[in-house]
Specification:
The complex is a heterodimer of chains A (about 325) and B (about 450). Chain A is an alpha/beta fold and about 325 residues long. Chain A has helices spanning about 35-50, 80-90, 130-140, 145-155, 170-180, 185-205, 220-230, 245-265, 290-295, and strands spanning about 5-10, 15-20, 25-30, 60-65, 75-80, 100, 105-110, 120-125, 210-215, 235-240. In chain B, helix 7 links the parallel strand 5 (about 125-130) and strand 6 (about 150-155). The two termini of chain B are about 25 Å apart. The chains are: A alpha/beta (about 325), B alpha/beta (about 450).
Chain lengths: ~325, ~450
């Protein structure tokens, strides 16, 4: 039996998923990343094995993604979360063309084609505005947990405007609203609307195309989905059964499974894990730029001094200036 | 005039000596800094000049030693010392938004001109121009803090969207006269400072050497049109451009460029590239992040991505970016004015029409993708990048990547973020597909030898 695991070591949460050869989810695990990435990966993997009732030796291939992808010693390969999200998106919702991934530390808009290939992507600037961290902070100022935020915001009747989307400066704005007697649910919803606006702006910048999907930890928050759909004036695809948060890990596992199937079909061995490799040795991906092949061979500078760059003196001499 | 001279210096006649452009470049830069430290003892005069719009040809005839404040600042970055200088100037009161080159230079002043490369002498004159509005404010800082006399060149720029000055037309003639008058003024100033008479023949000699350097420079860049590219425009290229600026109009400069071209030609003939396997050819648009340039290039080269070209190599090579800009040494001063006017007009307009320029360069250098580098402390060079990117993606279907850091402020470099973007960019390029690369032999045969 073939099992492939996908691990997404994000800035806030580490997500793990294991798929069987039929691309069915056998088990999942989610835990906070904390400060030690390699340990978080190990712990999540242990938990994943426990949840899926599998032995470690049964896992054929591990694909890692997320910021901490290089810290997983037992990975067979690594991909960025952008590629992983794109793969999972077309697998779950083939009509997806624009993905919005709201994570703890960053926010990504990814434009993909029908085959799940990334056409373009935009990430937030060096700023936490519009990320999960912004909502986390808002929750903290209000004495709430991130899990409370969704149900709380759903009770909002008149969301307030949070004009500053700066995760740090928003604090003073939240305190100001509280001191003006505005209920916490309206503040929470206001923060979500502000975040949604920022996220959709990023989607527009990547060149928004219908067929939207929301991924990342924000999918756990029903109020946030509502807020985004309201600003977008369209329905967002969200993976069922809590898979939204696991989308990156899911995509990595799908990519890993495809790789394994290809290797098996070609009768090639499964590549060793990062820890088993010789130092300095890197697994190469044998796919190449199409451009390199079609490049016209420029004969740049012959011995005669001819060059593609034209060399000629100023043609018309100007009249002498006194 | 010039073409005969250029033909005469064509490489090939002189036997190839072992020449390492990087080592030789570093040696020349070290010599230059030593020269600066010794300038006062030797009783030499010193001028502060910027890399663009600097009238360096005139100043050379008066035997000035040159301080390039921009190069001093970027060198603090290369030597990983920039943060100390920048923080000093911020403590002094400069805003975090001010150009980090300026801040590092103010830090240098506050450190009594002690640079990691040696003591930088105070200048007898500073030449600024309107090629960058910050230049003028920067020169004002020297005037106030160091009492350096300043000479600001007013170079005519772009008048409108569909307007272009062409060599020989009436507008260009008028612009040239305007620039020439300023040069005559500058000459008088230099005569007063140095006590020497201006020598027109020496100007012609300097210009002849600049012509030769530009000739080789254009060939060096053109050699990178070959696949695989013999050098990385954003690593090796930065060494070359340093010599282009610091040794402009000198025989050392000519010799360096000649040997460089010769060496790269040989490399091309052997089918040798900058990396063992060149998988992707890229174009870098914007200014470098000098503190982490090696790291950035490493991030790309581990994927087999080489910067075949960068627009930085044209706009920062002293303003003479196109091959047609050749000094007529029979009319040294007039020709200098004509070309300065033309180069300034192009330099000042290339921000507005970056998309057209880049589209041409994408074709010339046959690149797979383009990387934009936005600079936090210089919004001017970063402006319009989003529009340009949009245009290239939509019209030419060229994949692009935008990364942001700073010229020399290490606090804006976020390794994890940049690595993630670079990896995702290459994964995107990979997904576009392709077959195995050509064997090195085939590439060598196709590139041809310069026989």
């Amino acid at each position: 039996m073939l099992y492939v695991a996908g691990l997404d070591i994000g800035s806030t949460y580490t997500k793990a998923i294991v798929l069987n050869a039929q691309r069915e989810v056998v088990g999942t695990a989610v835990r906070r990343t904390g400060f030690k990435l390699a340990q978080a990966a190990e712990a999540a993997f242990e938990e994943l094995l426990k949840n899926s009732g599998l032995e470690r030796s049964l896992i054929t291939y591990v694909a890692a993604t997320g910021y901490g992808r290089y810290t997983v010693p037992f990975r067979n390969t690594q991909v960025t979360e952008l590629t992983a999200h794109a793969r999972a998106a077309v697998h779950l919702f083939p009509d997806t063309r624009t993905i919005l991934d709201v994570g703890g530390q960053d926010i990504k808009a990814i434009k993909i084609d029908a085959e799940g290939r990334v056409k373009a992507f935009r990430l937030n600037d060096k700023c936490a505005a519009g990320t999960g961290a912004f909502l986390e902070k808002t929750a903290r100022y209000l004495g709430l947990t991130t899990d409370d935020l969704g149900p709380y915001a759903l009770r909002a009747t008149k969301p307030v405007q949070i004009s500053s989307v700066c995760a740090v400066f928003a604090e003073s704005e939240v305190i100001n609203h509280l001191s003006n007697g505005i209920p916490a649910e309206d503040i929470v919803m206001g923060a979500m609307v502000a975040l949604g606006g920022r996220a959709i702006q990023l989607m527009r910048r990547v060149g928004i195309e219908p067929g939207y999907m929301l991924t990342g930890g924000m999918t756990r928050n029903a109020a946030m989905i509502n807020a985004l759909e309201l600003s977008l004036k369209a329905k967002l695809n969200v993976a069922p059964n809590g898979l939204g948060q696991l989308n990156g890990a899911y995509g990595a596992a799908l990519l890993g499974l495809r790789r394994v199937e290809k290797l098996l079909a070609e009768g090639k061995p499964i590549p060793p894990t990062a820890a088993q490799q010789e130092p300095g040795e890197t697994a190469t991906v044998r796919r190449w730029s199409t451009k390199t092949l079609t490049t016209k061979r420029v004969e740049p500078c012959r011995a005669s001094g001819e060059c593609p760059v034209a060399m000629k003196p100023v043609q018309k001499p100007l009249e002498a200036v006194a | 005039m010039t073409t005969e001279i250029l033909d005469a210096v064509l490489p090939g006649a002189i036997a190839a000596a072992p020449f390492d452009p990087r080592v030789e470049g570093q040696r020349l830069m070290k010599d230059w800094y030593t020269g600066l430290t010794m300038a006062r003892e030797r009783g030499q005069h010193v001028a502060n000049v910027f890399v663009m719009g600097n009238a360096i040809e005139i100043l050379r005839t008066f035997d000035f030693q040159f301080v390039f404040p921009e190069i001093n600042s970027l060198q603090t970055g290369v030597r990983k010392a920039s943060e100390e200088y920048i923080r000093l100037s911020e403590d002094y009161g400069m805003s975090p938004d001010v150009c980090s080159y300026v801040k590092a230079d103010v830090g240098l002043i506050l450190k009594e001109q002690q640079h990691p490369a040696g003591l930088i002498p105070k200048a007898d004159i500073a030449i600024a121009s309107n090629m960058c509005s910050t230049f003028i404010k920067w020169a004002e800082i020297w005037e106030r803090l160091l009492k350096t006399p300043t000479f600001v060149l007013d170079l005519p720029g772009q008048r409108g969207a569909n307007w272009q000055a062409r060599p020989g037309d009436a507008q260009h003639a008028a612009d040239s006269r305007w620039v020439e008058a300023q040069f005559r003024d500058l000459i008088q100033k230099c005569e007063k400072i140095t006590g020497k008479r201006f020598n027109m023949d020496r100007l012609a000699e300097v210009e002849e050497r600049v012509n030769k350097m530009i000739f080789h420079w254009n060939n060096v860049m053109a050699l990178n049109r070959v696949c695989p590219a013999p050098f990385n425009a954003m690593l090796d290229g930065l060494t070359y451009i340093g010599i282009m600026n610091v040794y402009r109009g000198t025989s050392e400069g000519v010799e360096y460029m000649r040997k460089l071209e010769e060496q790269l030609r040989a490399k091309v003939a052997r089918g040798e590239g900058r990396v063992v396997e060149e998988r992707f050819r890229l174009l870098f648009s914007g200014t470098p992040c000098y503190v982490s340039m090696r790291r950035l290039v490493e991030l790309f080269e581990t994927w087999g991505g080489v910067f075949a070209y960068s627009d930085y190599l044209t706009f920062a090579s002293g303003g003479m970016d196109a091959g047609e800009l050749v000094y007529d040494t029979s009319r040294p001063l007039e020709s200098l004015a004509e070309i300065t006017a033309l180069a300034a007009q192009r330099g000042l307009s290339n921000q507005f029409f970056a998309h057209e320029r880049l589209a041409q360069q994408i074709r010339d250098y046959d690149v797979d993708g383009i990387v934009f580098h936005g600079v936090k402390s210089c919004r001017f060079v970063s402006s319009g990048m989003a529009d340009t990117r949009d245009y290239l993606n939509k019209r030419l279907k060229v994949p692009s990547l935008y990364i942001e850091s700073d010229l020399i402020d290490p606090r804006y470099w976020s390794d994890a973020q940049i690595k993630n973007r670079v990896d995702a960019f290459f994964e995107t390029l990979h997904q576009r597909g392709g077959a195995a690369p050509l064997a090195a032999k085939t590439v060598a045969a196709a590139a041809g030898s310069p026989a």
